[in-house]
């Protein structure tokens, strides 16, 4: 049930189908805006609201994202700031990816590991200064892990959660729109790099990055109270580019092979199972948490990894619980943790860990969805194309 009160567009979601809001479920500088621009549901990531759907369907939003530009409130991509003389040392022991050659102004996708080489998180790392880094995190409590490490290892660093709220501008028209808003200099930012831009007298960090494969930017917005003004400025300039309010799109994310921590993988998984080994070299000479176990895992080999699955049978129901995946002989060999019908490929698409005897591209398998339909599927490499 949705109650509208006092002429406010703020909704109170009640009952089993909605979130009961409270201070613990943090709002963002843009929550008022997404409410007035037609959000129909939220999820919670890092204890903060993430819009999940708008009035248009996921399919309509998918086509729109591929052709136009969208504004996404991804403030839940919280920053963990590591500041001080030992900052680089601490960041480096948290990840198998070498950061020794990282430049100020650069971003790197870095899996963080625990002592078993289980994945703690898969953030984007930003190097702000020689002794200052941000981890732009997925959904787990990296702030506490980092504070614990700094304290336990007696490092000279401060660990904090700065008041920074990423706003993503995604889609093929994002660059032209951003050039209107921030000037032509925006075009000179390379993929996974950032520069600073003026907004009403404040300095804003803008990176070329984002949780889609359609290109775009992320504004690491600081200045909570100015949030609605930033939204309005982008919206006004965006009208000529057919802008719409959106959110990470499940169809596009799966198609692009972008993984979601907590869904496709958890602390139970290692980087090889997630195809993250392309992001680091194990023979790098730096030390990091989980290195010995990661080497052991490499020697022993893995028995499952994340693959794409294309499957038939008409649009599948929402994947609110994993869909079990079976071999043709009926053995359970995996589970689809994110799945949805892709209107361009005209098939259902899913992401699943698949056991090693079955993970080769082209292998046939069966997927059981909760409408009790057994659907035939085929293993595919990622991204889907
Ligand atoms: N942007 C920012 N922070 C984030 C995300 C983001 N934190 C949470 C979550 N998303 C982290 N997960 C990802 C997953 C994939 C990518 C970024 C963050 C990504 N991958 C590219 C790819 O796979 O093609 C490029 C990776 C590379 O080449 O280094 O962009 O979206 N700020």
List the helices and strands and how they pair.
Layout: E1 2-3, E2 12-13, H1 31-36, E3 39-45, E4 48-54, H2 58-67, E5 70-73, E6 79-83, H3 87-94, E7 107-109, E8 112-113, E9 119-121, E10 124-129, E11 132-136, H4 142-152, E12 158-160, E13 164-170, H5 174-182, E14 194-199, E15 202-207, E16 216-222, H6 227-238, E17 244-246, H7 250-255, H8 291-300, E18 304-311, E19 323-326, E20 332-342, E21 347-355, E22 364-368, E23 374-380
Parallel strand pairs: 5-17
Antiparallel strand pairs: 1-2, 3-4, 5-13, 6-11, 6-12, 7-10, 8-9, 10-11, 13-16, 14-15, 15-16, 18-21, 18-23, 19-20, 19-22, 20-21, 22-23
Helix pairs in contact: 5-6
Bound molecules: (6S)-5,6,7,8-tetrahydrofolate.
Describe the structure.
The protein has helices at residues 31-36, 58-67, 87-94, 142-152, 174-182, 227-238, 250-255, 291-300; strands at residues 2-3, 12-13, 39-45, 48-54, 70-73, 79-83, 107-109, 112-113, 119-121, 124-129, 132-136, 158-160, 164-170, 194-199, 202-207, 216-222, 244-246, 304-311, 323-326, 332-342, 347-355, 364-368, 374-380. The protein has eight helices and 23 strands. The longest helix is centred in the middle third of the chain and has 12 residues, at 227-238. It is an alpha+beta fold and 385 residues long. Mean pLDDT is 95; it is low at 1-15. β20 and β21 (347-355) form a beta hairpin. The structure holds (6S)-5,6,7,8-tetrahydrofolate. (6S)-5,6,7,8-tetrahydrofolate binds at residues 77, 109, 122-124, 136-138, 166, 192, 209-211, 218, 258. (6S)-5,6,7,8-tetrahydrofolate is lined by residues 77, 109, 122-124, 136-138, 166, 192, 209-211, 218, 258.
